[in-house]
């Protein structure tokens, strides 16, 4: 069991390991291995990039392996225990996925990829506190354009590979009987141990927005629309300067929506898909605030849009009223006049939890138990000092929809660290069984596709201990 979990983690998180060995045929060398790059630190000669492998329509260069190390370092991953052969194996898998994604006509959204690149560069600048020149030095690039082109290819191929993997396992499911068989197949001394778990409930009160504040943002959005249509003002500029959508503001409010892949909330999609090219919508409301949308272009199933989001102003009086309300609710619970669950059903403004007595749901397992060591750090900080059934002080918080909200929390049903139990931990065990079945499905796919795909491995890498049968050796 321990080895199974380890393998699953490596496959889905690092992507280093692959499927089991099977029948193969060694392809004669066709690459001039003299072009293998040499170490300039030893003999002073300039490095010459060599071809490490060919997978279908893709070539893997020696420098690609170096770039993988750089990518891992940029994401803060320790590379101390990751070998060059492991990274090479990962690249071979990625190219196999990408090659067959193209063969299967899987499309990627280039606008989305370029948007991701902008976010990656911005995150790097913010994280490192550096300049563009420092990024160029880190990636060993001479110009910003060269950096963006390389990042585009890296991101595009990663997206193709990811979409291909998702396609392979999208129909994989496990039955209750398969879950039981999986659990029973684990030797008792190898069953997983789950850390301390607890259940958390909360009551949330959100300051009310006045009708006057709502009307004010509707009127302002109508002014934006009129200025664009009647005076030729730039919708993009207005999005950059005024939109409350911070994620898209730097891109001028740009998004690409796909009719087949749900993005944004339903109200947003319905308005966007009802527009004609060049048309600007009337202001409309979602949970995030009020929007107007400009439809720039329709490309088959994809819609290139820009939008401006405005959130109504929350008055000081509304903030004070919300804080006073939840304070009184807390006092009644502490005094014993109300149970926490009844108070949540009556007073909480959080629709997702109020009808379950304020009980939070673990987003990973979809049940109410949360493992302490895997809990969201912010939530952990808010409940770490609470005793069971103790009520927290009133906390001021925010989320992506509400810039201000107040809440109280309580901890219930604490379960100490324990060995997996089929009945109590069914959902966790089901998730492990599903991952195991998905792993086997991917391994089967890899085994078949390696034989259906042109694979050429340079002699310098044939001594690597591959988990996939890249050398196409004969079955034993």
Features:
17 helices; disordered N terminus; 476 residues; alpha+beta
How do the helices and strands line up, and which of them pair or pack?
Layout: H1 2-14, H2 40-43, E1 51-55, E2 58-61, H3 62-74, H4 84-103, H5 110-128, H6 132-138, H7 144-169, H8 176-184, E3 193-194, E4 197-205, H9 211-231, H10 235-242, H11 246-249, E5 254-258, H12 266-274, E6 284-286, E7 289-299, E8 302-310, H13 316-335, H14 340-347, H15 351-354, E9 369-371, H16 377-383, E10 395-397, E11 405-415, E12 418-419, H17 426-452, E13 455-457
Helix pairs in contact: 1-17, 3-4, 4-7, 5-7, 8-17
What does this entry look like structurally?
- There is one protein chain.
- This protein has helices at 2-14, 40-43, 62-74, 84-103, 110-128, 132-138, 144-169, 176-184, 211-231, 235-242, 246-249, 266-274, 316-335, 340-347, 351-354, 377-383, 426-452, and strands at 51-55, 58-61, 193-194, 197-205, 254-258, 284-286, 289-299, 302-310, 369-371, 395-397, 405-415, 418-419, 455-457.
- The protein contains 17 helices and 13 strands.
- Helix 8 crosses helix 17 (426-452).
- A hairpin with a 2-residue loop joins strand 1 (51-55) and strand 2 (58-61).
- A four-stranded antiparallel beta sheet has the order 9-4-11-10. The protein has a four-stranded antiparallel beta sheet with strand order 5-8-7-6, sandwiched between helices.
- It has 476 residues and is an alpha+beta fold.
- The protein is globular and about 75 Å long.
